[in-house]
Amino acid sequence: MQRSSYDTATALLPLVGGPGNVTSVAHCMTRLRVGLGDPSLVDAEAVRAVPGVLGVVADGDTFQIVIGPGAVVTVTAEFEKLLSAQRLATRGAELRADRARRNATPVKTALRRVADVFVPLIPALIGCGVLAGFNGLLVNAGWLPWLTPALAAVASGFMALISVFVGYNTAKVFGGTPVLGGAVAAIVVYPGVAKVTAFGVALAPGQGGVLGALAAALLATYVERWCRGRAPDALDVLLTPTVTVLVAGLATLYGLMYAAGLVSSAIGTAANWLLATTGPLAGLVLGGLFLPLVMLGLHQALIPIHTTLIQQQGYTVLLPLLAMAGAGQVGAAIAVYVRLRHDTALRTTIRSALPAGLLGVGEPLIYGVSLPLGRPFLTACAGGAAGGAFVGFFAVLGDRVGATAIGPSGWALFPLLTGNRGPAAAVTIYAGGLLTGYAVGFLATYIGFNGSGTPGDPSPRRSS
Fold first, then answer.
1. Which helix (H) or strand (E) holds 36?
2. How far apart are CA 48 and CA 50, in angstroms?
3. Sign of the alpha-carbon dihedral angle for 33, 37, 40, 46
4. What 3-state DSSP class applies to 314?
5. Any residues with CB less than 8 A from the CB of 53 and at least 6 apart, and which?
6. Which of 321, 441, 293, 323 lies closest to 390, judged by CA?
7. Close Cβ partners of 295 (under 8 Å, ≥ 6 residues apart)
């Protein structure tokens, strides 16, 4: 009967115009009574043909579906659950669309394009990061000394030339010739730059890192565009690449590398100072605000910062703090699951999205559960803040936790964890932060949940 009632409800909802056309749901002894926004959207003949339906009665804005005694109770219950779940899904879709509209600003568009430069590099960062962490364990334990130099070379080769890949992708994303962007960015890591002096200081290979490579390739793209519009067609194939590499290359050597080096050093110094002096507060703010940053699209600005820290220090201390937002999200989703014991559809959504949430993929839970419900999104942020404060507290004590690559989060981040006290300490502190985020996200949601999800949007009620 449970399965049959669900099938009947599933068949009926689209035939009465979908969730957007349903204004009320009730039942009497034999009939499911559906209030309608627009009665013309109902396909009465198709409703009659649904197995289990005995007849229909159109009564103005109310459409009555005759199902029979007993069966009408279970069909109505399934209909209400399905209606609630689809409205929640619709609300999530509206929020995603609204986010896309709000993100269509010049600043956010630029941030997305910068993110497009770095996102294709994430698989290599992850692979090399895992190998670097594994190699570190072997070195510390004194195991396989004949293998560790080879593993170090395999793990470090990409990071040594990451500036070239950044330059290539930058030109590709911003409309230039990718290989020219890579050629100019290669200057940043070329050993011969040590013979060049800028502002009275000898340059160092790699100075400016990925930020210098990004700026160099971006400049090359603009120089290339300028040349393409002015060089004669017959000479374009010679002049444009030559002028692009020459102008952007000299600007990189005598300006961009020096400036980007100052910025990169400042980023590393600021991150270390922030955690060493205001660890719990920094963790609370970063962990608590990361979900809203994701909603606004501003989290993309952090990708070059993560990459710069990894290039400088071997790991980013910011990612483990930000990952706590996912822990708060998981805790909040579990609380909703426990609270809404009779909402089968929503509980099914949570069960299907929870494994991804545990692995750091939070969008299904955000858009399918917490954000449409409203308050659980805020309590998820509270859980993230608590987890971030936990990790930040240990940073003040001198135990920094970092990730050797960006991309993974949640449980998937464990293989990439390291820190100034070694991987074991980093894993222990990070695990404690996750548990804190789970617990606070769960408790804040469970205690503050009002039963219907959002104020002023009560669940449809059944009447007789």
1. strand 31-36
2. 6
3. negative
4. coil
5. 8, 12, 47, 65, 66, 67
6. 321
7. 99, 366, 371
The b/e string for 372-395 (b: 16+ C-beta within 10 A; e otherwise) is: bbebbbbbbbbbbbbbbbbbbbbb
Give the C-alpha separation, 103 to 96, whole Å.
10
Residue whose structure tokens are 């109505």 = 76
Specify the pTM.
Answer: 0.72
For residue 386, the SS3 value is helix
- pLDDT tens across 193-204, in order? 999 998 888 999
206-229: pLDDT as tens digits: 999 999 999 999 999 999 999 987
User: Can you tell me the distance from the alpha carbon of 373 to that of 226, in angstroms, rounded to the nearest whole number?
Assistant: 51
Report how far residue 388's alpha carbon sits from residue 314's, in angstroms, rounded to the nearest whole number: 21
Q: Is 28 a catalytic residue?
A: yes
* Length in residues, the chain: 464
pLDDT digits (tens, 9 = 90+) for 398-426: 999 999 888 788 998 998 899 988 888 99
Cβ(328)–Cβ(384) under 8 Å? yes
* CA nearest neighbour of 82 among 133, 166, 16, 127: 16
